[in-house]
Amino acid sequence: MADPPSNDLAEARADSELLRASIDDPAALRAFYDRWSRPVLAYFQRRLRDPEVALELTAETFAIAFERRATFRWMGKSPGAWLFGIARRLVYRYLRRESVQQRALQRLGVTVPPIDDESFERIDDLADSEALRILVRRALDRARPADREVLQHHVLDGMPYPELAATLGCTVNAARVRVHRALSRVEQDLSELLP
Predict the structure, then answer these.
(1) Largest CA distance in the chain
(2) Per residue in 150-179, is it b (16+ CB within 10 Å) or e — as a string?
(3) DSSP 50
(4) Alpha-carbon Rg of the chain, whole angstroms?
(5) Which tens digit of pLDDT belongs to each residue from 8-33?
(6) What is the pTM of this model?
(7) Chosen CATH of 115-195 out of 2.70.50.80, 3.90.550.10, 1.10.10.10, 3.20.20.70
(8) Contacts of 32 (CB under 8 A, 6+ apart)
(9) 3-state DSSP assignment of residue 88
């Protein structure tokens, strides 16, 4: 897992500028998401110990951040603090809601069985995930070799940006840009392949 973004003032300012730029440029929000999604996901997983809920709340955190990005004001602190403030409120709301639901289920004497592997496979089949996997493989096959290399290292192998930058012989910011551009090109190819 990648290290969380540093609290370094220059990086905090860069994150703030990314967030501000995202008002007019959705690609900037994607770069902000790429930078902060793992630390936010890890935060939810540590507190809730439920990967599905952690993923759901991570998505909700960034949806709220997207909606409210114009309200963020630079005050010398990283936007990560603002983002984690949103995440903290979502954890409290989730725990309150879960507590109410659990008490109601207990009063009614209802037990909810956990989702098993067979159920996950059934959901996967219903969602036709294999067809999507094939399309993603085709889009990756059509990608430039340099894009495939960058995506292999960062997305599939989970190589953090500093290590990726060292491997590519560039700065950390240049590595981020390369990953972002590679993802954008593969996403464009994928959209052309979708029926």
Answers:
(1) 62
(2) bbebbeeeebebebbbeebeeebeebbebb
(3) -
(4) 19
(5) 777 778 877 877 887 788 788 788 88
(6) 0.49
(7) 1.10.10.10
(8) 15, 18, 19, 22, 65, 79
(9) helix
